[in-house]
Design the sequence.
């Protein structure tokens, strides 16, 4: 009930989910799905302590992908990026938790896998920037925009996490 009220409030006033309720959008890209990395990636977010609120397999339309990557529309790699992202299904997810936007980006590694440290997802599982297996929102504002692009409200599930007291003091 509290979750429902918070969701309505956050949507009406476009406020960020903050603190332990911060949310981010993470997507396993088509290369990650083809390469059977979905389970490994979900495992990392689960074990870190984040809370899953949305998950689906999507064959993304060109219009969704263009909206998602709108800021990059003038880059020379834009058309290739849209082709890459529509070349197969994507696993779209919403994860919630304290500082999840920043922490997820650190778990992903740098945009270019060559600059990503071992231990990060891109550092461990890929080699080229154009096949970097995973997306994560780069700010709370981007997360809100991306979550509302990829998910309808009713696809996000509020549920009580029984391990919450073992994750937060
Ligand atoms: P990010 O995914 O780390 O946030 P962005 O700069 O937002 O990085 O770029 C979005 C995606 O565009 C990257 O994840 C990568 O798939 C692709 N991309 C970025 N730079 C290049 C490039 O120089 N060549 C090809 N693809 C690129
Ligand atoms: Mg980005």
Sequence:
């Amino acid at each position: 009930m509290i979750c429902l009220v918070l969701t309505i409030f956050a949507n009406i006033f476009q406020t960020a989910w903050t603190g332990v309720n911060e949310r981010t959008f993470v997507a396993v890209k088509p290369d990650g799905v083809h390469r059977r990395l979905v389970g490994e990636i979900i495992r990392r977010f689960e074990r870190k302590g984040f809370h899953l609120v949305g998950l689906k397999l999507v064959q993304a339309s060109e219009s969704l992908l263009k909206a998602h990557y709108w800021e990059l529309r003038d880059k020379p790699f834009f058309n290739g990026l849209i082709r890459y992202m529509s070349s197969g299904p994507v696993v779209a997810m919403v994860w919630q938790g304290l500082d999840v936007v920043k922490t997820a980006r650190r778990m992903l590694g740098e945009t270019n896998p060559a600059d990503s440290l071992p231990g990060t997802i891109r550092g461990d599982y890929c080699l080229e920037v154009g096949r970097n297996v995973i997306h994560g929102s780069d700010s709370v504002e981007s997360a809100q925009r991306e979550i509302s692009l990829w998910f309808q409200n009713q696809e996000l599930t509020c549920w009580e996490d029984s391990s919450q007291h073992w994750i937060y003091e």
